[in-house]
Amino acid sequence: MSPHAEHRTGRLVILGVAASDAHAVANQLIAMSLRHDGFIVINLGVCTPLEEFADALDANPGAEAVIIGSLNGHAYEDLRDLPALRAAGRMHAPVVLGGNLAVGGHGTAADRQALADLGVDHIIRDPDGLTPLLDSLHPSRPPVPVIGPFHA
User: Fold this and answer.
1) How far apart are the first and last CA of the chain?
2) Is the Cα dihedral 65, 92, 150, 18 positive or negative?
3) Taking the C-alpha atoms of 40, 150, 14 and 147 in order, what is their torsion angle to the nearest 10 degrees?
4) pLDDT, tens digit, for every residue of 54-111?
5) Which of helix, strand or coil describes residue 129?
6) What's the whole-model pTM score?
7) Which partner from 21, 49, 110, 139 sits 20 to 30 angstroms from 98, CA to CA?
8) Strand pairing of 7-17 and 144-147?
């Protein structure tokens, strides 16, 4: 463990932006909102390969969800390795995707189905729906120990 690692206890989520996407503002706003709502957020930031989400989840198996943002419309391409990671026993937490699901917007029903077929558990259009979704997934889950580092 890194000498800089922090130890905290609470409801934990892992957040980041898909590998091909460098949109940081929404990521930071969502992290702030989740922290305001009482979550400990491990924010992996922008341009995060799926493997790094899996690594963070391996280090913090009590995380309630992995939340991935994608605003550039390339979510499907960025998440195409999700089935292999799940088959390998990684990415066991619910995967929540938000943003633009396809180039040009929120995508079609076929786009949403393709992402679900990859293993995306939940797709949200409105970030205000994120905390209620997380509450519905784990309404009475006890706080878990968390290993940092925690990014801003």
Assistant:
1) 20
2) negative
3) -80
4) 999 999 999 999 999 998 889 999 999 999 999 999 999 999 999 888 777 677 889 8
5) helix
6) 0.84
7) 139
8) antiparallel
